[in-house]
């Protein structure tokens, strides 16, 4: 009898572990934000955040599906259960924490101003009377709107803002510093004409977190397990070096 009980318990534990290992988590990305998340020439979603998610999934023992979702509806889709998590350069803010839960931070970020090389500016206040662009509802967009005398222009994608800047239709773009570096320093055509003027002075430090539907503590804990392992093994440093060189 005891042997049967032990066999039954063992079978239950095995089935539980198998089910856990086979769990699939769907991650949404707005794949317009290089080098963090973007679509490559093969129409695949790639970038630092994508590699990071794959790494934490491997460490925590779950499978991943990556889904490309436009930024303007990405948070509503999470609330509606269209996917399980968002790994799309989402800065953790007190306002956002009212509507969703976050994992521990996985990436620190600053805001940078990209301008034509002929522009001399040291602060956003130096851009008074100018029009600055940013992707809508991002921390860069919020920073512009806080600056008196500056006209804020919002875009659905950061690439459209950079295109307008390159063609002289706006005077600057504020975005996350890895994205700013990608456009102003690494894309050959843009690098001839654009530069990073400065890092924007923001009220507090910014950190990316993975957003999860409010109340889903089990998933937050699972992803955090992966993040902790990725940090402990130095995988995050390897991914930074691969994608942004720091």
TrEMBL record:
Keywords from the named record: Signal
Ionotropic glutamate receptor C-terminal domain segment(s): 24-246
Top-rank taxon: Bacteria
Entry's Gene Ontology cellular component terms: membrane
Organism classification: Bacteria, Pseudomonadati, Thermodesulfobacteriota, Desulfovibrionia, Desulfovibrionales
Official protein name in the record: Amino acid ABC transporter, periplasmic amino acid-binding protein
Example GO molecular function: ligand-gated monoatomic ion channel activity
Pfam families: SBP_bac_3 (PF00497)
Organism (species): Nitratidesulfovibrio vulgaris (strain ATCC 29579 / DSM 644 / CCUG 34227 / NCIMB 8303 / VKM B-1760 / Hildenborough) (Desulfovibrio vulgaris)
Family annotation (PANTHER family): ARGININE-BINDING EXTRACELLULAR PROTEIN ARTP (PTHR35936:SF17), MEMBRANE-BOUND LYTIC MUREIN TRANSGLYCOSYLASE F (PTHR35936)
Domain called Solute-binding protein family 3/N-terminal: residue spans: 24-246
Family matches, as SUPFAM superfamilies: Periplasmic binding protein-like II
Endpoints of the signal sequence: 1-21
């Amino acid at each position: 009898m005891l042997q049967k009980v032990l066999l039954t318990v063992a079978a239950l534990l095995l089935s539980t572990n198998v089910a856990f290992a086979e769990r699939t988590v769907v991650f949404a990305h707005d794949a317009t934000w290089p080098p963090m998340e973007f679509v490559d020439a093969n129409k695949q979603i790639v970038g630092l955040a994508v590699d990071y998610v794959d790494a934490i999934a491997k460490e925590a023992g779950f499978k991943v599906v990556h889904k490309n979702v436009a930024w303007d509806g990405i948070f509503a889709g999470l609330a509606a259960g269209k996917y399980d998590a968002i790994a799309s350069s989402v800065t953790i803010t007190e306002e956002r924490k009212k509507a969703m839960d976050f994992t521990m931070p996985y990436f620190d970020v600053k805001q940078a101003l990209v301008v034509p090389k002929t522009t001399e500016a040291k602060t956003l206040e130096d851009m008074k009377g100018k029009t600055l662009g940013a992707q809508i509802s991002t921390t860069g967009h919020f920073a512009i709107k806080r600056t008196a005398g500056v006209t804020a222009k919002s875009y659905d994608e950061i690439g459209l803002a950079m295109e307008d800047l390159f063609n002289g239709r706006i005077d600057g773009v504020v975005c996350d510093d890895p994205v700013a570096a990608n456009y102003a320093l690494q894309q050959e055509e843009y690098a001839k004409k654009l530069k990073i003027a400065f890092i924007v002075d923001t009220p507090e430090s910014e950190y990316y977190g993975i957003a999860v539907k409010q109340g889903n503590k089990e998933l937050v804990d699972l992803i955090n397990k992966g993040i902790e392992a990725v940090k402990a093994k130095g995988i995050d440093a390897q991914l930074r070096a691969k994608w942004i060189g720091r």
